[in-house]
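pinging the channel bc i need a second pair of eyes. not urgent but kinda urgent?? the chain im working w is below, pasted from the shared doc
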Amino acid sequence: MMFLALFALSVLLQEGDMQPSGGPEVETQLFSFAERQQQLIDMAQLLGQIHHLHQICQPYDYFPERYRDRMKELVTLEEPITKTKDAMITSFNDGFQYMKAEFDYCNSDAETQMRELGSQGVTLTGKLAMPFRRGVLTDPSKE
């Protein structure tokens, strides 16, 4: 939960204008169920990729399973349907294996890749958080 909250907060702060535009009808159209499921699968893959890079570039971290744990939290919090949950797990593992094949050890390219994936994570978390922004950012009594 902390992972998603931090990414969402960073996205909100970067955007400047924190008020949603278009109202609930537009938000509903923009965030269909299928799109959200795909975003969850994409986030799982990204977490798998970062998990490997974190292991090789930060081997002495006190939390070596940090990104695997974030994946578990994501599944717990989202409670995805079985098909999506299975795809998320496969995607996490595929992402991990892909990065493992690309990087055997930490070097500047691995560190750059890790930063780029982190940036993609911020963007993706913003998309995942979008349907919740209206409730978080506006006071219903003032509408």
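so Confidence is low (pLDDT under 50) at residues 1-21, 136-143. and The CA atoms of residues 36 and 56 lie 31 Å apart. — does that match what u expected or am i reading it wrong
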